[in-house]
Specification:
With 114 residues, the chain is mainly β. It contains no helices and 11 strands. Strands 2, 4, 5, 6, 9, 10 and 11 form a 7-stranded mixed β-sheet that branches.
């Protein structure tokens, strides 16, 4: 069983930055594929970024260049650094861990005002 707890969301003005964190449980954290997804009001949950256990990263075109995912295996935490935020980035951001099964956190709300 893997438990994920996101933090770092909040209200920010357009053009601002936020760093989201996701703390995970489990002894095999370094083997997890970790990702961030987001769900805007009235829309489906969409992929944002992913980082493999080897450190390889994959981005959605909508956030490429503006966002960076990275992991700290010693702290069992994955981060999402978001810059140049836009109102359309407003969503609940969910952390995902894949290790055989998919595990999800409860999400953290990011609101970007224009």
């Amino acid at each position: 069983q893997v438990q994920l707890v996101e933090s770092g969301g909040g209200l920010v003005q357009a053009g601002g930055s936020l760093r989201l964190s996701c703390a995970a449980s489990g002894r095999t954290f370094s083997s997890y594929v970790l990702g961030w997804f987001r769900q805007a009001p009235g829309k489906e949950r969409d992929f944002v970024e992913r980082i493999s256990w080897t450190g390889g990263t994959y981005y959605a075109d909508s956030v490429k260049v503006r966002c960076t995912i990275y992991r700290d295996n010693a702290k069992k935490t994955v981060y999402l650094q978001m810059n140049s935020l836009k109102p359309e980035d407003t969503a609940v951001y969910y952390c995902n861990a894949r290790y055989g099964l998919d595990y999800w956190g409860n999400g953290t709300l990011v609101t970007v005002s224009s």
